[in-house]
Amino acid sequence: MQINSYILAMETSCDETAIALLSTTRADDGSFSGDILSHKIQSQIEVHRAYGGVYPNMAKREHIKNILPILRETLETLEELDDFYGPTITLTDEQKEYVKTTLAHEEGFAPMIIEFIESTPKPMLSHIAVTVGPGLNPALWVGVNTAKVLGTIWNIPVVPVNHMIGHMLSVNSTGTTFTLATPELPQLALLVSGGHTEFIYTTADRRTKLGATVDDALGESFDKVARMLGLPYPGGPEIEKLATIYMNNNGEPKAELFPRSMTHTPDFNVSYSGLKTSVKYHLEKHPNADPGLIAYEFSEAAFDTVLNKLAKIFSAHEVNSLVVAGGVAASTRLRQKIQKFIDEFYPGLSVTFPEKLLATDNAVMIGIASLLNEPIEPNTLTAQGNLSI
Ligand code: KG4
Ligand code: ZN
User: Fold this and answer.
1) Separation of 22 CA from ligand 2 center, angstroms?
2) What pLDDT sits at residue 388?
C-alpha cells in the first residue's frame, strides 16, 4: 500500500482556472482513495459575461493572470507537512531560456513563472495532472505549459488527462474525499456540458462512444436560449431558476410547446439546433411570452431528448451502472427526470451524479482521472482542443 502520495491537478480548458491538491493511497486491489486537500476554482464568468460567451484569447489572458497565485495558495495549504517541501530552485540562464522558449506564445508569462519557481520550494508530488483537451486551445495551452515547465524544472512526472474522462470520474468524489474503483460494468455515461453531449459505454475491455450531439451541445443550447431571453451567461443555471419557479407555480404542466428532436431515428445521437430555432421563432411570434414558460418548456424538451435516447440505449445494450456528469448535470430537474426514469423502468440500477460543485469544471476530477493514465515526458505535452474519448 502506497500512502500519501500527492497529486497537483490543473484545469484550464475553458473559462475556469482550477487547481486541486489530492492525497492518495493505492490499495492492494488496485483501487485508489484519498482526500481533497485543496480545491480552488477561479471563474472568469464576470469577464466573459459582457460578451455573452467565452472568447478563447481572453480566457487565455485570464488563465495567465490567475494560475500562479492560485497555485501558490494551493501549495501553501500544505505548509504544515514537514516532508512536503524540497529545496527552492534558482534557475540557471539555460533553464530561464528554456522557460522563455516554452512560453513564447503566452505573453508576459515567462517572467511570472520564473519568479514563482524561485520563490516556491519544490513540492514533493507523485505527479502533476493537467487537462490536455478537449477545450479551447489557447486556454488549454496555459495549463499544459505550466505543467510542462514545472514538471521539467522540478523533475516531477506529468500526467495528461482528457477533460471528458475527468467529468466521468467526478462522481467519485464527495468534495472532500474520493474513491476510485472499477465501476459496475458495462457502464453508461451521459456526459452533458457546454461543449459536449455524449453517451459513453464502458465494458471490461473498451470504451465506445454510442452517440453524441450532431450539432449544439446540451449546455450550449441552454446558453443560447438564455441569450434569447436576455439572461446572462452561463445560461443553464439562469434558465433553471426561471423554469423551477414556473413549475412550482403551475404544478409541473405537461410540456409540449417545443419539439423533441430525432425521437424516431434509430441511432443514439441527439440534436439541439432545431429546438433552439423553435424557441427563436416562438419568441419572434410571441414577443411578450412569459420567460418562465419558455424556460420550462425548453428545458423539458431538451431533457426529454436525452431521456429518449437513454431509453433506446437501455433497450439495445446491457447497462449495469449509469453515470451522469458534466456542467448540465448540475441541473436538479435533469437529475429528477433521470432518477424517475430509472426508478420506473430499471429499479435498482445504480445511477450516480457528481456533487453539484464538481459537476461544472474543476480540477478535482482531473486529479482523479490522472490515476488511470501514465506519466509522459513533460516536453511532449501538447494541447489537443479536439481530443475525443
Ligand atoms: O462542464 P462545464 O462546466 O464546462 C464545459 O466543459 O463545457 O459545463 C458548462 C455548461 C454551460 O453550458 C452551462 O450553461 C451548463 O453547463 N450548466 C447548466 C446548469 N449549470 C451549468 N445547464 C443546465 N442547468 C444547470 N443547472
Ligand atoms: Zn467541462
Assistant:
1) 19
2) 94
